[in-house]
Amino acid sequence: MTRIIKPRQLTELKNYIALDASWHMPNSPRNAEEEYLSKHLPQARRWDLDKIASPHPDGFVGHMLPSPTIFASACSKLGIEKSSQVVVYDTVGIFSAPRAAFTFKAMGHDNVAVLDGGLPAYEKEGLPTESGEYTAQPSQYPIPTLQSNFIKDHIDILNTIDKKDAVILDARPQPRFSGAAPEPRPGLSSGHMPGALSLAFPQLLQDGQLKNAQELKQVFENTIGKEELEKVLQGKRNVVTSCGSGMTAAIVALALEVIGGHSAIYDESWTGYAQRTNSPIVKD
């Protein structure tokens, strides 16, 4: 299971590699690269989710899951080895770091942790930071095998909608899910997939950190029902998470993992789905 680690617990770890996996929405004035150069955890390397990615076949989304070759190349450049303890964080709190952790897990690198509360929580503890780019000694990371149960594409999601063989959880804000509010990406329809359920990711957070396991379980019960959740936790019911572009879907996936469940991420998520003419869209 992906470990959730508090800032003070970092002092107990030895030989971990910190990765700044910050990412901001396209309409945000913040610049993740500039923020990293200005301030980051000691010896942290930059994990750019937009650059360490495979191209979308239709150009719809900029941060698709990287191929095993791209992933291995990025790890090698950053001095990450197969045995490395990786700690990912972001500058928001819990926002894009879970997507980076998901990437490592999907590539079979289980020794990964998410820094709960990210850089804000770390700084609040008075812990040291550095500036500038950290240059690591390159490694030779072996090309991994993609764990196929971590990822879904458009054909998969259409089959899921048709067969109703999985719970689809949508992490976008409820007004975008219902179609009442527009998408932040110009020209993209809002709404949701038939049968999908709304679980806006902020419901899983408190003060920029993940809620505790008991609180997370209650959120999932409120969303899909107690009996359905039990099936999920017993491995008898599949879950697919989605969001705007596959980023915050990973927060839902991480929260589900914390309480003992597993989910796959619909990688292109709503940005890809809503641009396809054969995608049914529901507006409540």
UniProtKB/TrEMBL annotation:
UniProt keyword list: Repeat, Transferase
Protein's name according to its UniProt entry: Rhodanese domain-containing protein
SMART domains tied to this protein: RHOD (SM00450)
One Gene Ontology molecular-function label: thiosulfate-cyanide sulfurtransferase activity
InterPro entries membership: Rhodanese-like_dom, Rhodanese-like_dom_sf, TST/MPST-like
This protein's GO CC annotations: mitochondrion
Superkingdom of origin: Eukaryota
Rhodanese domain: residues covered: 12-131, 162-282
Organism, as annotated: Wallemia hederae
